[in-house]
Amino acid sequence: VPFSPLSWLVLLPVPFMVALLLLPRRWAAHARWFALVPMLLQAAVFAKLIWEPCCPAALTAASDVPLSTEMFLFESRAWFDVSLGEAGRLQAAWMLGLDGLNLLLVGLTLLILPIAVVASWNQTQSPRGYFALILLLEVALLGCFLSLDLLLFFLFFELMLVPMYFLIGVWGGEGRRYAAIKFFLYTLVGSVLILLALLALVYSYHDPEATEVAGLTVRSFSYFTLADPGNLLPGTLLTQLDWRLGCFVLLAIGFAIKLPAVPVHTWLPDAHVEASTPISVVLAAVLLKVGGYGLIRLGLGLFPEGVIAYSPWLAGAGVLAILYAGLICLAQKDLKRMIAYSSVAHMGYVLLGIASVTAVGLSGASLQLFAHGLNSALLFLIVGVLYERVHDRRIPSFQGLWARMPRFTAVVMVGFFAGMALPATVPFVAELLVFVGAFQSSQTLGLFSPWLVGAAFGGILLSAGYFIWTFQRMFFGPYQVRGGEAWDEKLTDLSLREGLSLGLLAVLIVLFGLLPQLLLDKIDPAIEAFAQRALLNGQRWFTP
Amino acid sequence: MDTSTLATGLDSISASLPLLGTELALTALLLVVLAVHLITRRRWPAFTGYFTIAGLLIVTVFWFSQTLGLDSYTLSARPWALMGGALDLDRWAQWFKGLVLVGTLVGVLLTRSEARPVAGETYFLLVALALGGVLMAGASHGLIVYLGIELASLASYVLVALSKGDTLSERPRSEAATKYIVYGAVSSALMLYGFSLVYGLTGTLQLGSGLALRLADADPAAATVAVSFVLIGLAYKLSAAPMHFWSPDVYEAAPGGVVAALATTSKLAALAIVLRLTDSVATVPTWPLLVAGLALLSLTVGSLGALAQRDAKRLLAYGGVAQAGYLLMGLVVGGEGGERAVLVYALVYALLTLLAFGAGAAFASRAEGSWLLDRWQGLGRRYPVAGVAMAVAMAGLVGLPPTAGFIGKLAVFLPLAEAVQQLGLSSVMGVVVLIVLGAGLIYSVVSLFFYLKVAARLFLEADADADVPTQALGPRWNLPLALGSALALLLGTVGVNWLLG
């Protein structure tokens, strides 16, 4: 069977990675091309995928899979099938699928990673290893977003840690070792919890068709098997609501660490402050999204009753993140740290959207993941522009930059306005949808109080506060910088290379802010069906 | 003894001999290596090493043909019992024998590459260790268990004590060897006492279902005491807590090649015995609890002990104590799934441990024979192939995908998770299994701390001796290390079906 475009998408960087590792030392300066070329090829493959009319009927491979009507593309081939002795057989597959839930995130990955490569164009410290790790990270991210086999998902989820650990730990700042190990440990604790929940899942479900054919219980890591409550084996642990809620809590904590949600967010500011600009961009724009995506796909998809039962807690954690991180942002002197904390606040909206269990809220959460991806990439690049020039990123060190760097200021304006979710930017649409969904849910489902949603509006005020205040301090007023005249020559306006990456992100933020239906039309049908099914399956556990 | 039994016994022995290819070839090699060493040690000291490698490869051929012929043996009603039931010839035995041979082979290869020449007798002793290991792997009688362990132990004592001042270590070898021998003597005495109690309770030392039936009739308290003594004796060879105290000192003091062989052959051969014992003592109700206790204690002591280590070999020693816990976990639940988990994890452990010692020996050879992590700083960047191999080995021992280590851990955790589902939490055993499973997961995270420290030192730190010139390792080191890393990665991805099947 030939590989589908999805496999190409995931595996295309692998040969380039191997080539990078074998590249002779004297060609090391060209290493960056080995990273950029496969990424551009991937972007081309993906563009071809989404421009073609995406009707499931055209994709034959998807026809024999349940839920496949929502899949744009699907591919599955056996990976392993082993005997478990008395417990029957266990199957796992190389199963990839593109649908409304992951479409935006795959696109985001394919957009941000090349930007990160361009941002590290002048990387001179072991460039071959650096770009090989970035490619490995891309493989892991795409694999994670596209996997529909949960073992494969977990594999890619863990694989993400290794390149990120080295990218922070080797190419980072002063305290990089501490930050790298903290990042690794937090996430590994999370993934152990996720693994525990997966083990419980695998032993409670079976694949009825395969079981009938084989004549003995066939267990599978397939998402479709585990998401269908009809496949529950009688008498197993997950037939009891208490155990299901327990497993959901494990999953939720695991992904909340990655997201990150307050109070397990403390690894994030450290990691961001120590990581170099391109790595921060990837971390904030794409890596965090795995947490939100996991909560939706696995948390809500497999344990909808868990989301319903703990909806006030999830929404509360979201609102807490929005308000608490917003307050911390106000107090930051380091621009990068402020942006890192604003990421935590923005991820709070994702939690709130998921907790609503409504189609609107969910598409808001999905859009927020995408919007924050664009916006945080832009914001961290903005910090990088300053830091690269003067090796200082403290807010009080700058004043009146507008006069010296007008083009830069224009981009910063877009980034900061999007950060406060002003209209005509994507975050505005996303947060609006989240609020609508949350209110709707508090009215129709009554999962949590509308006052909780009201409290989240305080976050918008806070974000306006810290972004505008920072903008004022750094860009308005008479030109004055801490470095004095020595900095004057260094503080030049954007170069062409910087202008292209920053400009592209700014344009996309405004474009999708004005025409959100370009994105929503693609994802909404799948998300609506997903939300409906989740609500149906979840409420079943609470009706006698 | 009456003549007819004697005749049957002799018949069984003569019928068994042709089937003992591996064991006999290894014994022959043992004698020839000693002779070769005595003849060539003055004129061509390096020859013994080459000869041993060639010899071990030939033994591997014997092992291979023995394995291929497994299905065709029709000696008696119990076709796999050789020498009147003293040795078993089955898939388990062959699996562990293969691991023992590979471990010894890598040990010999590394010993040859030591920065300073080692005593030629080392090769003879390594082969003796392998013979002990092979006997242990097939032993199905208490007496052979004891003989195999003693043969392996005596060889290891001398291997550790055989001092030519050829490693850099703060701790004198004599101290390590003394600890090793004293602990060894105590544990073998305990085990003998345990076997004598088993014999007193049942009247036989023949492992198998017969023993299980008779133990079922024995007083449970007495049976518990008896099997726990045997288990404690085996824990010494497994370097499982609480009989692990020798291992950090021995690992630190002995040369890398010897430690690589000890860490795989002794430990896995002892595991083979525990595995075989599990069937025979399954009727002792406390057995799973004893194994669970041993596993939990090993996990805790090993993982926590490794945290503070600065010497790579001491770190791997404590890590090995924790790994003994993972190796035993599958036996807590037993059954087909549990036994398979043990076999899979044994292979994964052997592969990753040998890879780690191989990469470690490469670094040590470029750091004046030192295994101190401080001396290794930044070496991973200078020697990227060895660095990547070490990183893969460390990630694998933590259990991170996509290395084989993840699949190994998964294979161990799956039967435990199933047992929890089956037993539920209303039974004591269900709770115990859940605790073991939880501890396994938690200590995986803890193990990240110390295993990753090695990789971090190699890559994240500036060079310790920036002025020492880089001497390329060359294909002699790089090729096997690259192959080992590739194998560890392939078994974790495309090879999973083979590994678990």
Relevant terms:
heterodimer; A: 544 residues; mainly alpha; three-stranded mixed β-sheet; 24 helices; 3 strands; globular; B: 501 residues; two-stranded antiparallel sheet; 20 helices
Instruction: Please give the most extensive interface between any two protein chains, plus how many residues each contributes.
Output: A-B, 42 and 37 residues
Range of helix content of chain A: 55-70%
Number of helices of chain B: 20
Biggest sheet overview of chain A = 3 strands, mixed
Give the beta-strand count of chain B. 2
Computed Rg of chain B: 22 Å
Helix content of chain B: over 70%
Inertia-based shape of chain B: globular
Oligomer: heterodimer
- State the helix count of chain A: 24
Mean pLDDT of chain A: 87
Strand fraction of chain A:
under 5%
Which regions of chain B have little confidence, pLDDT < 50, spanning 5+ residues? 74-78
The computed structural class of chain B is mainly alpha
Uncertain parts of chain A: 55-68
The residue-averaged pLDDT of chain B reads 86
Order of helices and strands of chain B: HHHEEHHHHHHHHHHHHHHHHH
**Strand sequence of the main sheet of chain B, in spatial order?**
1-2
DSSP E strands of chain A, number: 3
- Backbone structural class of chain A: mainly alpha
Major pleated sheet of chain B: 2 strands, antiparallel
Write the layout of secondary structure elements.
The complex is a heterodimer of chains A (544) and B (501).
Chain A: H1 5-11, H2 13-22, H3 31-51, E1 71-83, E2 89-99, H4 103-119, H5 127-146, H6 150-159, H7 161-171, H8 176-204, H9 208-214, E3 218-220, H10 223-227, H11 241-258, H12 267-274, H13 277-302, H14 304-309, H15 311-330, H16 335-355, H17 359-390, H18 401-404, H19 406-419, H20 426-444, H21 450-475, H22 485-490, H23 496-514, H24 517-539
Parallel strand pairs in A: 2-3
Antiparallel strand pairs in A: 1-2
Chain B: H1 3-16, H2 21-40, H3 47-68, E1 81-82, E2 87-88, H4 91-112, H5 121-138, H6 142-161, H7 173-202, H8 209-217, H9 220-238, H10 246-253, H11 256-280, H12 287-307, H13 312-333, H14 335-365, H15 379-382, H16 384-398, H17 404-423, H18 428-460, H19 475-492, H20 496-500
Helix pairs in contact in B: 2-3, 2-5, 3-4, 4-5, 4-11, 4-14, 5-6, 5-11, 6-7, 6-11, 7-9, 7-10, 9-11, 9-12, 10-13, 11-13, 11-14, 12-13, 12-18, 13-14, 13-17, 13-18, 14-16, 14-17, 14-19, 16-18, 16-19, 17-18, 17-19
